[in-house]
Amino acid sequence: MSDPATLLADEILARFVMFQHWIRADGTVRADAFVPPKDLQLSATRHISLSEFAIWKIGEIVAAARDVELLGRADIAVRSITSAGLSAQPAPIRENPNHAHVTGWPQDKPSQKILAQQLAAMAEYVSKP
Amino acid sequence: MILEVPRYDAISSGGESDAARFVAKQAREARQALCETYTFGHAYYEALKELVSIKEHCTFPGWDGYDAEPVRRKTIWSAYRFLEALPPGFPTPSVGAEPDGDITLEWYRSPRKTISVSVSPDDNLHYSALLGPNKYYGTEAFFGEVPASILELVRRVQS
Hints:
The complex is a heterodimer. Chain A is of the alpha+beta class. Chain A has helices at residues 52-66, 78-83, 109-122, and strands at residues 12-17, 42-46, 72-77, 87-90, 99-103, 124-127. In chain A, 27% of the residues lie in helices and 23% in strands. Chain B has one domain (9-158).
């Protein structure tokens, strides 16, 4: 079970990928996966205290709720997020106590995109086993 | 080699005038001639197929598994016009979509040598590029021609 109210710099967050066009042929993830939604709260899941199996299980639940297929996840360290000028906070929800938000996004789209590109460049894509 | 060509009406806006349809048809026929060569045609057709795939998979809320906005028909049409407006023989992007409903066109060499252009329904082009440690981003209006600033960034990514 996750506990801290704040995320540690060396924590890893997973951004589940459920859209084929977000994955490049070379196995990296496109910036599109990190562009924030309109509420500027990008959902992610903390690895902390979770086994690999449990992380994928959460991804499956997220995908099933939307009737889409889980393809993989983009893992990124909290340190990388903060180095880009963004922040991450725990945002637990009933079906995912490890849910977190990446916040601090600027309002204008080009600024969001360049940050998303930086995150994508620092993320590691992991295909679903 | 025979390429599977996405049908024009699969991505047409449905709202354009007769004159616009005529011009688009003429442009398409000219491009068709060029695209009959595998060299120029293959990547372009792949991009069009990806655009059709976006239409099939991203026009309902939550298509990304989260809370994505649907990609609107007008955005698909704008992205199609952008692809059509690329200079003949120019490198063709891969096509994607973003949670806010914009369509993305990406030219990519590596995670730190890449440019992404978001096509929005209001015909604004939001672009961002990483070229090593350098960052370039901004917005250009799309009036039927690809802005020179974006073409130059693509050339730098591809070089």
